[in-house]
Amino acid sequence: MCFLIAMSFIRRPIFAINFKAYDNAIGKKAIKLSKKIDKASKNFKGSVILIVSNTDLFGISSRVSNVYVFSEHIDPFLPGAHTGKILAEDVKDMGAHGVLINHAEDRVSINNIRKCILRAKKNGLKTIVCAENIKKLESIVKLETKPDMVAIEPPELIGGNVSVTNAKPNTLKRALDIARRYDTVILCGAGIKTKHDVISAMKIGLDGILVASAIAKSKTPIRAFKRLAKGFKEFKD
Q1: 149 CB-near residues (< 8 Å, 6+ apart)
Q2: Domain residue spans of the chain
Q3: pLDDT by residue (tens digit) across 205-234?
Q4: Cα–Cα distance between 208 and 187 in angstroms, integer?
Q5: Backbone angles phi and psi of 207, in degrees to 5
Q6: How many CB atoms lie within 10 A of CB 237?
Q7: How far apart are CA 58 and CA 69, in angstroms?
Q8: Taking the domain 2-236, which CATH number applies?
Q9: What does the pLDDT read at residue 2?
Q10: Are 158 and 131 in contact (CB under 8 A)?
Q11: pLDDT at residue 162, rounded to an integer
């Protein structure tokens, strides 16, 4: 299927981790955490993606070898007179493999989503585009310039203790159907914290997960990483 071609260098299942701006996952702490996850990812049968602050991109990308590193944000601009903007060209030069677009905490218009995807693709960056509901997901996958991956994340569940896999399994099934119709790889996120949440996502047929607080806020992030990774392994076994 076409969606496999679009993901040429990223293997499924996909385990994406958003560092956000949590105290445990910025600056030197982000580099330390990334190195530990990189080591723990060595035998992961799929792809681990670390989505990190732009200011930490080079420090992390230059120190890891088993994971992919994505930027948390780009702006839809060409190089020029744009003070304070984050350009795809700069993100690429700092070692990023891709970029996260339209997270619930960094919403942009559908027109700017389109522009950001285009800017990313022209610079050889993969894209994960978040959608807060089915309507937005469908508008994203219908774009002429499609993302490599979409992530369905109901905002009311983000950072909470109730997993989207338990609260909205029918929403995930509808999202999967739409993504497959448009040959797009699909992840889910919001409240995912246990290996059982991972197994549930994989049973539905999704291509992977997008998590943040479960790892980036954990007092034992590598233990948390391994617990979630175990869900992928147990599903496969």
Answers
A1: 7, 14, 126, 127, 128, 129, 184, 185, 186, 187, 207
A2: 2-236
A3: 999 999 999 999 999 999 999 999 999 999
A4: 5
A5: -90, -10
A6: 5
A7: 10
A8: 3.20.20.70
A9: 34
A10: no
A11: 86
Name 72's Cβ contacts closer than 8 Å, sequence gap at least 6: 18, 19, 20, 51, 52, 53, 54, 99, 100, 103, 106
Q: Measured between alpha carbons, how far is 100 from 113 in angstroms, rounded to an integer?
A: 10
Q: Are 14 and 46 in contact (CB under 8 A)?
A: yes
Tell me the two tokens of residue 115. 């522009």
Catalytic machinery residues: 103, 153
CA–CA dist 109, 123 (Å, integer):
21
User: Which residues have CB under 8 Å from 187's CB, separation 6+?
Assistant: 14, 16, 128, 149, 150, 151, 152, 206, 207, 208, 209, 210
pTM reported for the whole predicted model: 0.94
What does the DSSP 8-state code read for residue 167? H
Locate 152 and state its tokens: 């369905």
pLDDT at 191 > cutoff 60: yes
Q: Which amino acid would we find at residue 74?
A: I
Helices (H) and strands (E) counted in the chain, each on its own, are: 11, 8
Q: Please tell me the distance from the alpha carbon of residue 149 to that of residue 32, in angstroms, as a whole number.
A: 27
pLDDT of residue 1: 32
Helix (H) or strand (E) holding 35: helix 27-40
Place of tokens 């159907």: 177
Length of the chain: 237
